[in-house]
Every structure is written in structure tokens, then in C-alpha cells.
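TICKET: design request
STATUS: open
ATTACHED STRUCTURE:
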């Protein structure tokens, strides 16, 4: 990585991991940890007694380092292909765009009345898209959702299961399951957590909002 200080970093000697350090100010190499691990139960012994690092967090890299220091086997695999860090909201949205670009379209749901669709769209079973809706792909909608009427869902949007979106516009966003959006506004570049409710209590509609909403959140716009 060009900026290894933003990640956990590995120091490799003779093909073996010698040292791991989390977000070092002076990285020992340019090899970042991708954050995918498979552990034996011995990891729990290594975790015991961990203390917060200079960042104020318990570091998994320190636990793995303990395994190395105890002489246990720690194997590594060098990833030479595509990898995307998703540590920030904008990273997650970019990863969503990359995945949706390769979407295979299908429709297992039901389109009612005058619905306009363009681009690659995937709709899971049990989902109903009501009249006067516009769907523009790439876009995926999960199971048992209710979309519309008079709703626009634009490109690079992923919608989870059991979501209701009634009115308004949304694009380049991720909406997790069990969410209700009924605000009549334009939502862009947003992450909306599971079980959230977004409604409107205004007459005058702004052009758009950028939201990062946690699980089980209520937002009144």
C-alpha cells in the first residue's frame, strides 16, 4: 500500500511474519493487513490481558503478535488482486458501486401500473413496486419490500429486505433491512442502518440530504 500507516502492517522475514503493528507512525513495510483472519481457539488465550493501544483500542494485531511470540504457527497469504478498504462511509459506498457494476439483472418481484425501469436492476421475491415509480440501475432491491407509489430509486443503490420507501428520491445509497423511508425528499450518498425510520414534517422540500444513520434510528426531516 502507498499509505500503510492507515492500516495494520506486516513485517515479513524469510517468507514468515515476524511482526505486526497496527497503524504505525513509522511502518516497517508497505504490506497492509486485509483484515481477514481464521483462528484456532488459542487466540482467546492471546486476547486475555490485552490493554488498549496508543489509539485507545484493543488491537487484533497485538493478539496475533502474541501467537507469533509464543512460537505458534501464523501463516500468511499475499493478496495480489483487487482489495478495497471499507473503513469509512465513502469507502463502503464506493465498494457498493463496484459490486453493482457487475450485477446480473433479474426480477422476482411484481411491478404494478406505470413503472419505468432502465439499466441493470435486480428485484427479489415478494417485493412490490407500485405505480409511477422510476427505477434506474445498477440497483438491487431485497425481499418483501414495498416501493412507491411515485418514488424514484437511482443508480448504485442497494436496498435490504423488508424495506418500505414511499415517495421521494434516493440514489447512490445503501439502505439496510427493516427500514421505512417516507419523507418525500431526495437522499443521496447515504448509509441507512437496519430498522431506521425516516419521515418528513415539513412542507418545503430541500434538494437533498446526506445521511449516515445507525441501527434502529428515527429521523424526522
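STATUS: resolved
RESOLUTION: sequence designed for all positions
ATTACHED SEQUENCE:
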Amino acid at each position: 500500500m502507498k499509505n500503510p500507516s492507515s492500516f495494520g502492517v506486516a513485517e515479513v522475514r524469510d517468507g514468515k511474519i515476524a511482526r505486526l503493528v497496527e497503524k504505525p507512525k513509522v511502518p516497517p513495510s508497505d504490506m497492509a493487513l486485509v483484515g481477514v483472519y481464521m483462528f484456532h481457539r488459542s487466540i482467546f488465550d492471546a486476547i486475555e490481558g490485552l490493554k488498549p493501544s496508543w489509539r485507545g483500542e484493543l488491537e487484533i494485531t497485538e493478539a496475533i503478535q502474541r501467537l507469533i511470540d509464543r512460537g505458534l504457527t501464523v501463516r500468511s497469504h499475499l493478496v495480489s488482486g483487487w482489495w478495497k478498504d471499507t473503513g469509512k462511509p465513502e469507502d463502503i459506498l464506493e465498494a457498493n458501486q463496484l459490486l453493482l457494476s457487475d450485477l446480473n439483472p433479474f426480477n422476482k418481484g411484481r411491478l404494478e401500473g406505470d413503472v419505468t425501469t432502465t439499466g441493470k436492476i435486480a428485484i427479489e421475491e415478494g417485493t412490490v413496486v407500485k405505480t409511477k415509480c422510476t427505477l434506474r440501475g445498477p440497483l438491487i432491491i431485497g425481499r418483501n419490500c414495498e416501493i412507491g407509489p411515485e418514488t424514484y430509486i437511482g443508480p448504485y443503490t442497494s436496498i435490504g429486505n423488508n424495506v418500505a420507501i414511499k415517495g421521494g428520491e434516493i440514489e447512490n445509497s445503501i439502505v439496510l433491512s427493516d427500514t421505512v423511508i417516507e419523507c418525500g425528499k431526495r437522499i443521496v450518498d447515504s448509509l441507512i442502518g437496519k430498522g431506521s425510520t425516516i419521515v418528513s414534517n415539513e412542507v418545503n422540500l430541500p434538494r437533498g440530504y446526506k445521511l449516515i444513520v445507525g441501527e434502529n434510528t428515527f429521523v424526522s426531516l
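CLOSING REMARK: The two ends are 41 Å apart (CA to CA). The helical segments are 42-47, 60-69, 89-100.
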